[in-house]
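Long-time lurker. I teach an intro course on protein structure, and each term I like to show students one example going from raw sequence to a predicted 3D structure in token notation. This year I'd like something fresh instead of my usual example. Would anyone be willing to generate the tokens for the chain below so I can use it in lecture? Attribution to the forum is fine with me.
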Amino acid sequence: MSGLGISAPVGNRTHIIFLGRMNSGKSSLVNALVGQQVSIVNRTPGTTTDVVKKPMEIHGIGACTILDTAGFDDEGELGSLRTKASKKALDEADLAILLFPEGNVTELERSWLEEVLKRGIPVVGVISMIDRMNEDAVSAARKRIASLNIPAVCISSAAKEGIPELLEQMREAMKGRISKKRLLGGLVENGAFVVLVMPQDPQAPEGRLILPEVQTIREVLDRHCVAVCCAPEEMESVFTRMQGLPDLVITDSQVFGKVYKSLPRGVRLTSFSVLFAALRGDISYYAESAKAIDTLNENSRVLIAEICTHAPMAEDIGREKIPALLRKRAGAGLKVDICAGSDFPENLTDYDLIIQCGGCMFNRSHILARIDRARCAGVPMTNYGIAIAYMNQILDKVIWPE
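-- Reply from a regular --
Happy to contribute to a lecture. Here you go:
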């Protein structure tokens, strides 16, 4: 159903992460908030192992993904891996809910609060399990959490007490932080004619369109523009049959060079990947980083970061086409590593360049976290569309939203 655009794509959702010690009431709170059993609730420590994700709608915030994490006091080798997974999930977070069971504040809570704030993630504190506390204990707990300079609410998940107050604090924390950026930005006005060039090659899923195409077509229609879709082979025929020229051509990046050569003079050009680079990432940094392609040689190492998880196939853009373009310029000995999904190397200094896919399946926070890590490691990072345009020597001819 998501392929039909009925549900909000994962990358468009506000990601809300729930953090706390084992048995602090995270899973019970998530279940109470969502209104169904999303996470298993048990007194046995370590019941939640992997990060559990659940989509939901929250009035005033919109489409969200709830992330229930393992307790950050989990011990042992397996516990350490669970804690590491919870910390990794912070990369996705737009908002953090930090639980203080019965209002207790230990060094663990302080440490995780510091980590969350360091990343610029807004936090709402939750004094959980208040059904076990008397009024004096609740009052004292409120003062302890207030000293941390974060808003806090008192919750009893069993009695569903405090849920409306939590939702209100969540809305308040996200006020002004939900991006109003649009995929096409100011590139089109009402009534514009937009041609979308979409190769139907072996990579294209049978019987459906890929997510960037679906989202772009939807926005073109939302903007009261006319969408004309074609494969590269029909593009010149489309231009010939149109009365006048299109206002914008959006292409799949892998045929950037071919489309540019066939483009009528004066027609503006961009790609799905470039549009998502502007929406989710830091496109100025991507464009600047693309210059690092000129410095690559046979001793260089490049990381291709592909978010979608799929079985490799012939003509794959990330595993076949981009490496071939790079080796054509730098030499056959150029080393190319591939990572997929949420995997991303701990040590980025091994690489001379990182090339990220369009990122349609990640939210903006997740992409920016990767960019920040690359910057801190001193490694240039660009994007599929930007890199391909640069290697076709047409990056200065490609446009994107400001």
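Some talking points for your students: Confidence is low (pLDDT under 50) at residues 1-5. Residues 193-275 form a domain with the Rossmann fold fold (CATH 3.40.50.11420).
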